[in-house]
Each structure stands twice: as structure tokens, then as C-alpha cells.
Description:
The chain is α+β, with helices and mostly antiparallel strands. It contains eight helices and six strands, in the order E-E-H-H-E-H-E-E-H-H-E-H-H-H. It has helices at 21-29, 40-52, 72-78, 109-131, 136-139, 157-167, 174-190, 192-200; strands spanning 5-7, 11-18, 63-71, 85-89, 100-102, 148-155. The model has no long low-confidence stretch (mean pLDDT 94).
Amino acid sequence: MTEVQFSSDLSVQYVQHMGSDAMICRAAKVSAQALEAQDAEESARLIKFLADNRHGTPFEHTAMTFMVTEPIFVTREFHRHRIGWSYNEESGRWRKMEARFYLPPVDRPMTQEVIRESSYKAYDEYEFLLKKGIAKEVARQLLPLNLYTSFFATCNARSLMHFLSLRMHKTALWEIRQIANAAYDIFEQYFPLTAHAFVEAGKVAP
Ligand SMILES: Cc1cc2nc3c(=O)[nH]c(=O)nc-3n(C[C@H](O)[C@H](O)[C@H](O)COP(=O)(O)OP(=O)(O)OC[C@H]3O[C@@H](n4cnc5c(N)ncnc54)[C@H](O)[C@@H]3O)c2cc1C
């Protein structure tokens, strides 16, 4: 019998990025044909102006790709973000789904026990159907929403800020907030002036 794993991990990993705060400034200044390099202080001022005035298009000349690993119920919320986002997710048609389930990291023994039991049962039944020769794409419908999935998500700084404005908010689901906070940390590393301007503007996306 396959060993079933439980985890509370919610992970966002950096894959690649394109562009920089300087590139956003260049895109903003192309209208005035004033493309000469500027110092960090001027860049910070310009990016703050763009963020405060919701002048959003210069932020679109960038890209970031994340590898996200989280349960399906969080992914359903993530993939509602359509504009400026591209996704590629692991397949339940071409490969057997891994026996890895999410358990909320809270001290609620009864909830945890029920989730564990139902996850074991669902995976058992999934494997039973596979052994009977049922196609993976059919058998997978028995698996619950706390099964882990993983996907590549590519966005630009503007679409990321829109996602962050909704998903870092205190009213968002706790799990997607952890994912959004982790994505913000990566964003801040590669686009520090933009990330800080976004926070200073009250986390309102430009
Ligand atoms: C706290 C919370 C609770 C939620 N609860 C529910 C729920 O109960 N049920 C549910 O179904 N969803 C729910 N959602 C999802 C929500 O309705 C959005 O689908 C999700 O947040 C993605 O936002 P978005 O459409 O702005 O993003 P994107 O799809 O990335 O769109 C970005 C922006 O593009 C513009 N845009 C995109 N598509 C169109 C269009 N067709 N017409 C005009 N303008 C467009 C809008 O300005 C939009 O804000 C919830 C979201 C949050 C944050």
C-alpha cells in the first residue's frame, strides 16, 4: 500500500524573472523620450508616482515565474486570477497523483483526525480503481480538495500586485495569504522599489 503523507507546507519558489525597477522607469519615460539612466532616488520617486496615481502599464514590461505547491482548494482560488497570468499545472491524466495531503497547521485534533481518515480512504479508493484498470483521468475524481498540486505561474508586476492586493488582505483565506506573502517576498527581492511603492500606496494595485 502507498504511504500517505500529510503536510502543512504552502510553498512559492522563484523560477525566473525578466525586467527590473529600472525597466519600469524606462517604460514610463518612453512617452517623453527621456530614456537616460537615472539614480536610485529618482527611480524611487518615479515608481512611487506611478503607484500612487495608478499609472499601471509601465509595470507590465516585466515577468516573474513562480513554482507554487499548495492544496487544490487554494489553487482553485489562485487560478481565478486570469488577467496577466499564465499557468501550467501537473497532470492527473498522464501520471498517478501523489499521496500527499494538506493538513491545516492548527491545534484541532478532531478536525485533523477526520481529514486524515477521509484522505486515507479517498486515496485507497483511487488506487483500487487504478488497480482495476480504470483510467487515471477517471479515477482522480475520488480525490479530495486537500490533495497537493503544483504549477508554474507567470505574471507581470502589475498582475501580481492585483493578486497581492486581494490575497494578502486579512479577509482572504489564511492559506492563500501565506502563498501571497511568500510571492511578495520574492517580488520584493527583484523589484524592491516597486514592491515598497505598492505597500506605501496601501497595497492598492496600480
Ligand atoms: C475574499 C475573496 C472572496 C471571494 N469569494 C468568491 C466567491 O464566493 N465566489 C466566486 O466565484 N469568487 C470569489 N472570489 C473570487 C473573485 O470573484 C475573483 O474571481 C478573483 O479574486 C480574481 O479577481 P479578478 O477577477 O479581479 O482578477 P483577474 O481575473 O486577474 O482580472 C483582473 C482585472 O481585470 C478586469 N477584468 C477581468 N475580466 C473581466 C471581465 N470579464 N469584464 C470586465 N473586466 C474584467 C477587472 O478589472 C479585474 O479586476 C473571491 C475573492 C476574494 C479575494
